[in-house]
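Hi W.,

Here's what went into the run:
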Amino acid sequence: MTSGIILHHYDSSPFSEKVRFMLGVKGLDWASVIQPVIMPKPDLIPLTGGYRRIPVMQIGADVYCDSQVILAEIERRHPTPPMVRGADWAVNLWADRIWFQASVAAIFAEMGAAVPKEFIADREKLSGRPFDIEGMKAAAPFAKAQWRAYAAWVEEGLEGSDWLGGATPSLADVAAWMNVWWAQGAAPKVADGLLSGLDRTRAWAGRVRAIGHGKRHEMAPGEAVRIANASTPADPAGVAADDPSGLSSGEAVVVMADDYGRDPIVGTLVGLTRDRITIARECGELDVNHVHFPRAGYVLARR
Ligand SMILES: N[C@@H](CCC(=O)N[C@@H](CS)C(=O)NCC(=O)O)C(=O)O
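Here's what came out:
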């Protein structure tokens, strides 16, 4: 039976690889909608209300923005085998932000002139900063030293077990994998050097690849929009009474990422928990959908 999961992604996206790997561990059947690598994204923005980053997961009229909330929702809906342990969410944010920035400098410095101009212009708009290949080249030795130190933590974490959280894969593996996968795919020579002598990590990468991505089938972007229009969102969590924000259900709010791709998304607050924000949006001719964001890494304000 299909999980109803529709993943909006593209194959070269490292953050999407986290989700694909988790879908593989859970053995799920899912629909793959390929979205453009750069703007415009005419079949994505109507679903998210303005969020443009990838991946986005859709289940009917519920739309999950950011790999953090996507992985949490997959774990909630498909708890077997369990994957979230201990302080895994903190490891996840470290791998997404700190390790990923070292990956960006090390990989794009290596790709240099091969990076297309349209991609550079798009990512400058996304970050609001110059995409400075020369600067990345200058920073690369320092970034690589950091990258290697992070990979060495993985190496240490694998002492005596096949996976970072023990005998079976966990969220820590998913989080760390993104950086190793991206480096091995986009800058294989660099990855080879940085992983030299880290034999447990190399063997672990082989085990991750062997798990695969579950059962993927392709879906046209327009079909995903049609499914959203034809569906009703699940009952939202409601707003926690003790939330320090003082916000209540039904308030008009704006949500945005606090790092890059800070396009504001507006809606009506329908869910607010310690780790999740849910807003309801009127979607033109569709009636309403619910868009979910993580709390960590996002700003939520009254409009
Ligand atoms: N915190 C986000 C970051 C996502 C992210 O940066 N994704 C990259 C692709 S891997 C992206 O959206 N790049 C710009 C784009 O594709 O438009 C997450 O965990 O999902």
